[in-house]
Amino acid sequence: MLGATLTVLTALGVALLSWGARVPAERVPPVSPAGVVDGIAPAAGTGEPGAAPAPKPLAARGWRDLAALVERLPSAPRGIRLDGLTLVLPELDAKGDLTLQVERLTIEPAAAGQHLRATLAELDVAALSDRFGLGLVVWTGPGLRATLEARFQGGAPVGPWEVRLDADGPGSVQAFAMPEALPFERWSASLEVAPDWQSVRLVELVLTSPVLQLEATGEAAAGAPMPTVRGEVRLQAVDAPRLWALWPPGLADGARRWLSANLTAGLVDELVLHLDVTPDRLGPDGLDPGLLSGTARVREVEVHYLRPMAPVTGAAAEVSFDLARMDFDFTAGGIDDVEVLGGRLTISGYDRAGATPELVLDLRGRGPVATILRTVASEPIELAERRGLGPEGSRGAGDFRLELALPLIRDLPLEAVDFRFSGDFTGVRLPDAAAGREIDQADLRLEATMDRVEVGGRGRLDGVPLRLGFLADATAGIQRLTAEGTVDAALLERLGLPQGLPLSGPVGVEAVVDLEGPEAARVERTRLGLDLTAAEVLLADAALWKPEGVAGRVDAVIRRSERGTRIDDLALAWTGADVRGSAELDAGGALRRLQLDPLVLGGTDARLEAEQAGGRLNLRLDGRRLDLRPLRAWSAAPSPTAEDAGRGAFSGDVTVAVDELVWRDEAPLAFVTLQARLTDGLVTDAHARGSVDDEATAFRLDLEPRDAGGAQALRIEAADAGAVLRALGVSDDIRGGTLIVNGAVRDQRPQLEASGELSLDDFVLVNAPAAIRLLSQTPAQQRISPEAVGVSRSLAAFSMAGGVLQLKEASAIGSELAVNASGSIDLLHDNLDLRGSLAPVATVNRLLGNLPVIGWLLRGETGAGAFVITFAISGPRDDPRVVVNPLSIITPGVIRDLFTGTRIVPSEEWYSDRERD
User: Fold this and answer.
1) Strand-pair category, 523-531 with 506-516
2) Is 122 exposed, middle or buried (0-12, 13-18, 19+ CB in 10 A)?
3) CA 266 to CA 270: how far, in whole Å?
4) For the segment 401-460, what is each residue's pLDDT rounded down to a tens digit?
5) pLDDT over 60 at 861, yes or no
6) Which helix (H) or strand (E) is 485 found in, with range?
7) Contacts of the segment 165-171: beta carbons below 8 A, 24+ positions apart
8) Does the pLDDT at position 668 exceed 50?
């Protein structure tokens, strides 16, 4: 349309210029000497116009014949009129003479000569176009009527020729390579032609149609590179697709093709085209862009900015353009349920020959996150597939900005598209932002290009409130999720940390999760940092404790793939804790390799190695100190079932070599070595060695494989039983002694089941609460000091099940007493339930035993004593309840042999009655 208008105006100027430029003076035939023009005669009569009846057709050859006629005709007061004049322009061009029919010629007196007025019959525009090559190939409707006026004096024109052309329509014109004809209702032009016909000025050009209003002025001169034309075209209420049909091929073809293919609907309310065609706008590099410019107002436009992405529909825009650039400034529109708030579409670079036009889109809008992601997730951008952000299940809303830049070429390659997207969204949910993790209740900033996506803001990651970031870089082949914030320790499990961490209080989290490599070999790498400064770390029995306010931190790099998990750069540090190392786990989460060096944790200062080999996990721990105090808390835990106890059990060899092993706060074991073999969590073979102070107080433990009867042989030896038992937390009441245990282990799961015999000789019982309370109830003359009771030999048969030690036929003898007892000791709850008898071996008893006959009766065969005390002990070991049979205190009897199986034990009924009293 725009090019067609320029074509019509240029053609008109060239046509006018051609009339002067192609008729040089020397080619006009000369006037005959007699001054008579052949075939021309004045009208008869008074000279009144139309007075001559049936005028004879007249002919004139050339403009100079007309000038001669004007000069020779006698002056008449009322002028002269000639009708039916034939004007011949001889040899105008290579095609020969040009004949024009003049309907009427009038010559009237004027103040300075004569006034000539000629009306030409309807001109055949198509014939003129063919003759002069102006490109006006199709003209429908009436021909052009032309009126020429001039003033003459002495046969020469005074001033310019005035020409007016009219076509009263309706009709149409199709100029140059216009795709279709331009309709009009009226077409008129006023021109001024120089007397020598070497220049022409377009005073006014007006074209009126149902949708178009054209007004223009201009001028042209012989020898000028191009005419000068200035004008304005107004177009109203035209469908946008029809506008592209009026755009002539050859004029900004790249822009025309893109607009016609991608602006597929809409209405042009008004288009204003400005023409400013001047010779100085034609440069060596082509036309000046300002030669043609304009503005337009469009609405209900459908814009396909990058197929097959969803188009902008219902768009309204203000348009400005020239020969180099076109701008669409959007004021309304939408993409599905996304509202377009504004933006600009620019097409440029179509004015340079051989150059590739470029499209730039800058669009602002507001709408749901799901729709926005669905738009940019479609081809060719495919944001979801390439960057890990998908529209499915997403929610939220916000404002966004979409930027595109691409060349207007056929078969556009994706790498030639410059795509940028940014937006601010609230209430966002992304169910699979990265590594299968959900982001919810988030306020996020999203920025994306063809190769990179970045997301940042605050929200919940798997339900944990954090400051979040997400990066996907297609060039580097990574996706990265960052999370930072302060959370309750209980929420750390949702981030993939193990359950039951000994933490309480707020924990600072810094996590960077990277997805690296192609889809088939994707590796997830997590750089995890935990700031424990504001939290409390407490392991069992406070053996490892970090109070809140003390700086502490845990760092690790965790890499997950289809083959398993690898942990590198593991570091745990605070006052009293320094652990560094690495680990590997298989795809099922089972440990393949572990290395901790150093392992400084609580009282432990060692290094640990673990390795999976042949289905067995082999452990080795060595170093200065191994602190097992945290394990003491397990003694208060409920007894697990056999199934629970076996869960997570492993098979392998365990090797320990430490300078110190600590089970209690004092008296550690020294130079401890352990070699054990485990199968499904059961110890099948174990050998332990160590000492308390030096090699002189060594102990050993041997557990042999099962024999034919299905039991394991157990043997324990300790040269200083009191020191070993004190170090192991079994008893603080024994000093010295030699311990030997021979037993059989029948089962280890869920707890130890064993039986056997033990002997403990040459020890001293010191400050034992049960002994103190029992001995304090002996007769005053028989009372033994309870603070230190020496025992030369003790024997017991035992069995253990469910954490309870059962004693049967236990006996002990010393210089001052003899005891036998049976009952149980609950090791899990540190409770006693014992019944037995005690015979004090005092000096008085021995003296009485020396009397003849009576002494034998009192002494018995062994002479062990004269009095027997029966007792019951129950309750906590540190605060037991002791009940004594008072009748037995004064009852003489024969002591058969307390250490050969004969025992005097009170009945259950007696103790029941006693406890009720």
Assistant:
1) antiparallel
2) middle
3) 12
4) 999 998 888 788 888 889 899 999 999 998 876 556 788 999 999 898 888 888 899 998
5) no
6) strand 478-488
7) 165/123, 165/189, 165/190, 165/191, 167/141, 167/142, 167/143, 168/142, 169/141, 169/142, 169/208, 170/141, 171/139, 171/140, 171/141, 171/142
8) yes
